[in-house]
Task: structure prediction
Amino acid sequence: MSVVVEQATIANAELIEAFQRLIPQLSSSNPPPTQDELAEIIAAPATVLFIARLDEHIVGTLTLATFRIPTGVRAWIEDVVVDSAARGHGVGEALNQAAILEAHHRGAITVDLTSRPSREAANRLYQRIGFVARDTNVYRYDV
Result:
């Protein structure tokens, strides 16, 4: 089985079903995006929605956001999820490598992400492919 990563281009029934299956594996507090929300993500010039397939089935997703700030172009990887049945087949690595390449093509000088410490396998993957933990605090303000 080889992993195929592509950029989502249409919010069709297959993509909606995949997100209904995958998002609960990522977050119990956030509902899956609607068709309109997926279409908005796909259409937004600053985001790329990657999907990964094994045997033609969507088994993972990752969102890359790029933006310009005064110190350069930056990129963030968000909402990485691989179906529990597909883990261990290189899906997460393939998604991240595709996102890193796209960030480079968009002129980003860094790619950042966050990962909960409890996601041990994900943290090992990020370190193995070259991400380095930063000595910083991450803050969130709920609006």
Notes: The mean pLDDT is 97. The helical segments are 13-26, 35-43, 91-105, 120-128.
